[in-house]
Design goal:
Elements (H helix, E strand, L loop, with lengths): L5 H15 L2 H5 L7 H24 L2 H7 L3 H23 L2 H8 L2 H13 L5 H19 L7 H26 L6 H20 L6 H26 L4 H8 L1 H14 L5 H25 L1
Length: 291
């Protein structure tokens, strides 16, 4: 497979962020599927798509290689399972903007986890960004504490916590000479998510319209963009990936606003601006330092 140029990798990451951002607006047009059933169908179609994409990319030997991989792959898969499941449940419980902006704290949580568990040093600029982003999240949720379900907030927080755990695990494994291929880990996550969400999803009530939309999400919102992001990560630096991934938040809020009428409140916009601003500030300085 031909290596991407830097400019093409940037464009591909923008397209990837746009694909990621479609989950909120699509779920608002479901007819009957709710809660765990939404996650089940999306994860199932992600699994089916990856069963085709993985052998096409890496050959059929990829499945045999997975069985020989260490436990890091399976723990990473468990983290992906939590992210898949919690994200869709949160989307069904809360406004899209709140979920996406909560997820945006993931890079800063990763920095904290890496410091606590594998001894990475946190730069002063990152401490400042963590403080500002924390203030933004408190502002965003503090003014709506009586209007948002506590369960939705807790579920939404599971996504960045699982993501931070995943990236910290991958870094730790790589430092000890064990490479974790993230695309097979996404497949493992999809398998676990299907198994975990089917029992509480029964009896299945999704219409053919719902199944079609969730099949679209499984293929075009999760399987394809996750594979593309892994390809882009081979070319782009980590701060570039983090910055371009933030477009998911902006695209997702705009799509939910334009396509489903979910206009974000003033507190969400103010708190979200603090979170995004802190991340942009931190990643731009990191990019400058690396250059």
């Amino acid at each position: 497979m031909r290596e991407l140029s830097h400019s093409r990798a940037v464009l591909l990451m923008v397209a990837t962020a746009l694909m990621w951002s479609t989950a909120g607006v699509v779920t608002r047009h479901l007819e009957h599927a709710r809660s765990f059933e939404v996650t089940f169908w999306r994860s199932l179609f992600t699994l089916l798509a990856l069963l085709v994409i993985l052998p096409a990319m890496q050959g059929r030997a990829v499945f045999a290689a997975m069985r020989k991989t260490g436990r890091a792959l399976w723990i990473s898969g468990l983290c992906w399972c939590v992210m898949f499941t919690a994200f869709m449940l949160a989307i069904m419980l809360m406004p899209v903007a709140n979920v996406l902006l909560t997820m945006a704290a993931g890079p800063l949580l990763t920095a904290l986890f890496a410091r606590a568990f594998i001894g990475h040093r946190i730069a002063p600029r990152t401490w400042v960004a963590i403080a500002v982003a924390g203030l933004g999240i408190v502002w965003m949720y503090g003014s709506q504490v009586t209007g948002l379900p506590l369960a939705g907030t807790i579920v939404a927080l599971c996504v960045p916590v699982a993501a931070a755990t995943n990236w910290t695990l991958v870094q730790h494994a790589q430092r000890h000479g064990q490479a974790v291929d993230l695309v097979p880990a996404v497949l493992v996550g999809a398998v676990l998510s299907v198994g975990a969400t089917l029992p509480p999803a029964l009896p299945l009530q999704a219409s053919l319209h719902d199944i079609g939309l969730l099949a679209l999400l499984g293929l075009a919102q999760l399987a394809i963009p996750c594979v593309l992001a892994v390809r882009c990560a081979r070319v782009l630096r980590a701060p570039e990936i983090a910055l371009l991934s933030l477009l998911e938040v902006i695209f997702g809020i705009l799509l939910a606003w334009l396509g489903a009428g979910e206009k974000p409140g003033a507190a969400v916009l103010t708190g979200g601006a603090l979170v995004i601003g802190a991340l942009v500030f931190n990643e731009l300085l990191a990019w400058k330092e690396q250059k």
